[in-house]
Amino acid sequence: MSGWFERNRSMVLIGLGTLAAIVVAALLSGGPRTGADHDPENPGARGAQALARVLEQEGVEVEIVRSAAALEEQTLDPATTVLVTSASNLGKSTADRLLEAARDSTVVVSGAAPGTVEALGVEAPVAFSSLEGTQTAACTDTGLGDFEGIDIEVDEASSYATNAGCFASDGGWFVASADEGLVLLGAPGILENDQVLRADNAAAALRLLGQQPRVVWYVPSLDDLVGDDGVSLRSLLPPWLKPALWLLGLAVLALIWWRGRRLGALAVEPLPVSVRSLETTEARGRLYRSASARQHAADVLRRSTRDSVASHLRLPPSDVDVLVRDVSARLDRTAADIDDLIGDGATAPRTDDELIRLATALAELDTEVGRT
């Protein structure tokens, strides 16, 4: 046995070390974790695990649901606050299910973008801003919570232009009362692990979410969305972007008009070199040959022959039937024979040899007509 251990000592030590690392990781994991922003099981900088545990320590029951079906199974009464994070995952159908299930409770939606606000069915224009320093409560709706003397400080936030709220800005409220029992939290940074201790963020979060003895933390899932939940690009854009695009378009049109006037009218200039017609003909022939465009080449040859023959006979080249009849009478050849050469329905050559024979026949025809 000792001999086997000596031979495999390295493998045994590696296996024991790996097993110990797995055991330690399992003991320290403390349950499921996620990397989503403002998630109650995310211990990272942008997670909200610290706030969830503080709420539990303060005697607030925190329940986490991650689907619309699980939310509908909860008992949502006036003694329950429903907090919605990852609000961008909400669609029209899941927002309707949320509002229907929590009609007797207070719903707090964190970080609602314009598309989410539209899905919730409320009129609350959104304005994005970066906060500098602290923001004082200054509430006009006491139903949101007792924020007197509370200051918040976050890196960035959204304000909602509603009739009432707390923490005012030029564009509205950072904590807005959007509808009966519906609150829009435009400063989700107060929930984050790395910002909850700044200023009075922790106190603001506790006073907003700790008014009732129970919090249902709803993290919507994209799996609950249906086909009609598509959000238009327009609803995701800030309201100032459309007039800015119009202004940019007008500026581009003005620039085109200004530069166009400076360019002036087009000027015709002679070519710097003269190209002989023979060279042009040979070059065009090489192009036809490289592209195997025998039909096109034959059409050009027939059209040129018709023009020349019509010029000899003083006939219009466009009337092919009259031209074929007169040439046939002049040369004492059948009309079918002439039509096979210069008619619109003449057979196209299939090989280069047939094309050469056609060109020779057309040249002979032109010569014969010219002699008459």
> What's the overall geometry?
elongated
Question: Which strands sit side by side, in order, in the main sheet?
Answer: 1-11-2-3-10-9-8
Largest sheet properties: 7 strands, mixed
Query: Helices and strands: which structural class?
Result: alpha/beta
Number of domains: 2
User: How confident is the prediction overall: mean pLDDT?
Assistant: 81
Radius of gyration based on Cα positions: 42 Å
Q: Would you count the extended β strands for me? A: 11
User: How many helices?
Assistant: 14
Provide the succession of SSEs: HHHEHEHEHEEEEEEEHEHHHHHHH
* Percent of residues in helices: 40-55%
C-alpha end-to-end distance: 121 Å
| Percent range for β-strand residues | 5-15%
> Which ranges are low-confidence, i.e. pLDDT below 50, for 5 or more consecutive residues?
27-32
